[in-house]
Hints:
Elements: E1 3-7, E2 10-13, E3 18-25, E4 32-39, E5 46-51, E6 58-60, E7 68-73, E8 78-83, E9 92-100, E10 117-118, E11 122-127
Parallel strand pairs: 2-11
Antiparallel strand pairs: 1-3, 3-8, 4-5, 4-9, 5-6, 7-8, 9-10, 9-11
Amino acid sequence: QVQLVESGGGLVQAGGSLRLSCVVSGGTLSRYLMGWFRQAPGKERQFVARIYWNELSTYYANSVRGRFTVSRDNAKNTVFLEMTSLKLEDTAVYYCAALPMPTAFSGNYAHTSDYDYWGQGTQVTVSS
């Protein structure tokens, strides 16, 4: 059974940076398409970023494009989300998600229903 564990969240001032990690166990990371989502209180879980094999195959939500960077280290079974220029509205619980790598790609894989496995989340709080 694939398990995902996020870490790296915390409290940061607006304009600051954080790096989230997601360690995958019970499976080989290179066989999975990975995504990051976030959920603010009272709101639906929303897409942040996803990565296929490497940084050349990434896709971002408009709200984070240019500020966040998703990457993966298959040797360490870890996916990262580098967040810079953080804003108050980035405050949320951040989740990583995994989908067995599709044999035929369809769409941007930006919906929660696209993914089979989820981590427990890590809280990111941006203060003024």
